[in-house]
Amino acid sequence: MKLSQLAFFCAVVEQGTVAAAAAQLNCVSSNITTRVRELEDLLGVSLFSREKNRLLVTPEGRLFYQKAKQVLAMAQEARALFKDDAERGVIRVGALDVALMNHLPERIARYRANTPHVELHIRPEPSLMLEQLLMDGELDLILTDGPIVHPLLVSRLAFRERLVLVTPKALSAPTVDDLSRMELYVFGQTCHYRRQVDGYLETSKIKPRAVMEIESFSSIFACIEAGVGFSCLPESVVEQAVTRHGKFHFERADSLESSDIYYVWRKNYTSPLIHRLIESLEQDL
């Protein structure tokens, strides 16, 4: 079914005759007659009752006319989508929790205020899942640990971040033995932080009494404040928690690598919307 067929049909209904419709559309009558016949064959119903030189719209034709007008109106709206200077589109972004909690909120709010015609959908996921969703085309842009070296991807520094050792407030200078007597709280294996923490434990010779996966910053802080365990968490998250209650101690550890957050997108992605989004997020608040 073609839009031209719908337009010819609607013109005949509105003008009352094929000749009048042809004059309005500046085409020959035989072209309109052929297209209407094709439409009837495609639908399997008669849209007009033909009596000598008259065309009377059938009940089926009236129903189809309503739907055809809607389709033509939608097609007109679609053609007009990008005629003005306003940015329009649907962008799908994935990000680490730490980026969404501490680095992006005000920047996203500013972007929404400046680009109201762009739909921005954001979902939190761990590092490995974000990379997979980007490769599968489910996401247009991710903010994750980096840099990422891949022939199909481009990465650029977004925000500085690093992990810090967080312990109960009473342990201001914890030893290896202190930490080995405590529980360790970590995120799951799909999180880049988990790999860093595992490397830190091996380098520091720390063997925690138990390792527990708790994928909730709030719950981890509660357990640390209760004095039963420790963790390695993003510094920006810890600094925010300190301003709220501060019932724990934290310090940087040399063997905990940086956990900088990077913008990552597909190298062959040509939409300017993605690059303008990154530019907006990079602007100082």
Automatic annotation (TrEMBL):
SUPFAM superfamilies: Periplasmic binding protein-like II (SSF53850), Winged helix' DNA-binding domain (SSF46785). It comes from the Bacteria. Keywords: DNA-binding, Transcription, Transcription regulation. The keyword Transcription regulation applies. Residues 1-58 form the HTH lysR-type domain. Belongs to the LysR transcriptional regulatory family. This is LysR family transcriptional regulator. It comes from Asaia spathodeae.
